[in-house]
Design goal:
Helix content is 66%, strand content 10%. With 581 residues, it is α/β, with parallel strands linked by helices. The chain binds adenosine-5'-triphosphate. Keywords: ATP-binding, Membrane, Nucleotide-binding, Transmembrane, Transmembrane helix.
């Protein structure tokens, strides 16, 4: 509801004009009823002189009605488009500010369906349904007053239908809203599934998952269908009850009207005007069912958008940051002190302490699931430690804003994560204000110029969805160029070369060496051959640090690192032999 109220307040002036247009519309409708009555009276009294003036009045009424309806339609679609734009932008902005834990728990497809389908429903409601809900009772009231003037006994019959139809609406409205919310949730699940599958075409083709996915999709689509049928059933019951009540009142009133004409209580002209007016009284009530249903559906959609809007965003800015005033950001020393961290109740990091020294290369190694990526997530401020502290040049993360924390790092993730658009756009995401020279320098340092020069459109080449039109090594080098351009004091590398062949790896390694040169670097490494020259290697095991030292020191210990090194070296040799063969 809060979503609705805010938007109505914002576009109040549209609603005022629409209110005026509605009043003109009602006046025109009542005038048509008056015209019918008069024309009939003229015909009965054979007063042909009145025909022409009445015809002119009719033409004028039709013209005014036409213009008014155009203004009405235009304003409604404008409100609807404005509301949708506003809400979409608001939800998207909110989405960008959501915490990492929100993204961990919610599927992106569900967010997509809220921003698109739910948003459209709300736009329709605020542009159309709401006006109808105001116009219809007003129309019924005015027509009713006119009816009272013509014949109060007939008017009383029409009065019966209002409360009866409203009662049905109230009784069935809640069920419509609930069913539509469930239906939208199921739509969200289905959209998420389609998004997953469409983004993994190579996997479903290679693993021949077509029939399994077909089955899964059919199940989800059926679930949507069944929910929509349930929703349709309830709205149809409401619709048919309203129609039955409305038409019963109509038949009753016409019969009684005919009786009054037969007994010369009212004229035939009054009966004609009455029939028209009765339509205006009944129609709002019969259409009330569908408009009320639409409103309930849009309230369900508003609930789903409200759920996102009321999520607590990350606080990116913070007043009085100690780091800003204290330190020269380029010389960064990061200390992780006795960090404990758990996802829900599963402890992942246990009393973890690491010193990330300025200008040094720190490598993190350890078995899969030992908590290396989680450590990065904490460094980037995606999660707060449950215990312990992270300090930058002695300043605690709790005294820094998230903007400042994230400004400290450039990240080359394991999956390069490019965005649809050109190479240039993707590289500039590292620093949108960078000059053309800086960008080109970053491209050269990342060894990306070697392949970009071969593309006819150079930096303006489209990369495709998530960079699908580039090779793995090319994507990595674009991600490295993006990281170089950020010129952040600390570089985080997450197994950046793990999935590449030897040639690509060599190019990427060269690029990384450029990037790491004299820069504080933390790298998660699977290929231990790439970190032998690291200033410090931290070995993690089940969330704890079990060894720290240089490659030589750790090899002499003959402990975890030694074992890891031997196992991985064997694997790398096997891989190399495989690639040579
Ligand atoms: N968002 C999450 N919610 C709940 N548990 C998670 C989440 N992310 C990771 N985990 C769990 O935390 C543990 C550590 O995961 P993490 O990704 O940090 O390990 P890792 O050392 O980087 O592994 P790998 O080398 O395989 O990438 C794992 O047991 C994993 O299942």
């Amino acid at each position: 509801m809060a979503v609705f109220k805010g938007l109505i307040r914002k576009y109040w002036y549209f609603y005022v004009v629409l209110g005026l247009v509605t009043v003109i519309d009602i006046t025109m409708n009542l005038s048509i009823a008056w015209l019918f009555g008069n024309l009939t009276e003229t015909a009965v009294s054979r007063n042909t002189a009145k025909f022409l003036p009445l015809l002119y009045v009719g033409i004028a009424l039709i013209l005014i009605m036409g213009i008014n309806q155009y203004v009405n339609g235009y304003l409604k679609s404008r409100v609807s488009a404005n509301v949708q734009d506003e809400l979409r932008t608001l939800t998207f902005r909110k989405m960008l500010g959501l915490s990492q834990s929100y993204y961990d728990k919610h599927h992106s497809g569900d967010l997509l369906s809220r921003i698109t389908t739910d948003n459209k429903t709300i736009g329709g409601a605020l542009g159309h349904t709401l006006i109808e809900l105001i116009k219809n009772p007003l129309m019924a009231l005015c027509a009713f007053i006119y009816l009272v003037i013509i014949e109060w006994r007939l008017a009383l019959i029409s009065l019966l239908i209002g409360p009866a139809i409203l009662l049905c609406g109230v009784l069935l409205g809640r069920s419509i809203r609930e069913r539509s919310t469930v239906s939208q949730q199921k739509w969200g699940n289905m959209t998420s599934f389609v998004q997953d599958v469409a983004g993994a075409s190579m996997i479903f083709k290679v693993f021949r998952l077509e029939s399994i996915f077909n089955q899964k999709f059919s199940t989800q689509s059926r679930a949507v269908r069944e929910q929509e049928i349930k929703l349709g059933t309830t709205t149809s019951i409401l619709q048919s009850l309203s129609n039955m009540i409305g038409f019963s009142a109509f038949v009753l009133a016409i019969t009684y009207g005919a009786y009054l004409v037969a007994n010369d209580v009212i004229t035939i002209g009054s009966l004609m005007a009455f029939v028209q007016l009765m339509n205006y009284v009944i129609m709002p009530f019969t259409t009330f069912a569908s408009t009320w249903g639409e409103l309930q559906i849009s309230l369900g959609a508003a609930d789903r958008i409200q759920e996102v809007l009321k999520e607590q965003p990350e606080e990116l800015e913070q007043q009085d940051s100690l780091l800003r005033s204290n330190q020269e950001k380029k010389d960064v020393h990061v200390s992780l002190e006795q960090i404990d961290f758990a996802y829900s109740d599963r402890k992942v990091l246990d009393h973890l302490s690491i010193e990330i020294e300025h200008g040094k290369f720190t490598a993190i190694v350890g078995a899969s699931g030992s908590g290396k990526s989680t450590l990065f997530r904490l460094l980037l401020g995606f999660y707060n430690p449950d215990q312990g502290d992270i300090r930058v040049n002695g300043v605690s993360y709790s005294d820094m804003s998230l903007h400042e924390i994230r400004a400290l790092y450039a990240l080359v993730p394991q999956e390069p994560q490019l965005f649809t658009g050109t190479l240039r756009e993707n590289i500039l995401y590292g620093n949108p204000e960078a000059s053309e020279e800086d960008m080109k320098e970053a491209v050269v340092h990342a060894n990306a110029h070697l392949f970009i020069e071969q593309f006819p459109e150079g930096l303006d080449t489209q990369v495709g969805e998530k960079g699908s039109q580039l090779s793995g090594g090319q994507r990595q080098r674009i991600a490295i160029a993006r990281a170089i351009l950020k010129k952040a004091p600390v570089l985080l590398l997450d197994e950046a070369t793990a999935s590449l062949d030897n040639e690509s790896e060599q190019l990427v390694q060269d690029a990384l060496r450029q990037l790491m040169n004299k820069r504080t670097t933390v790298a998660i490494a699977h290929r231990l051959s790439t970190i032998q020259h690291a200033d410090k290697i931290v070995v993690m095991h089940e969330g704890k640090i079990v060894e720290t030292g240089t490659h030589e020191e750790l090899m002499q210990l003959c402990g975890h690192y030694y074992e890891l090194y031997r196992t991985r070296q064997n694997n790398e040799l096997i891989e190399e032999a495989g690639s040579i063969a």
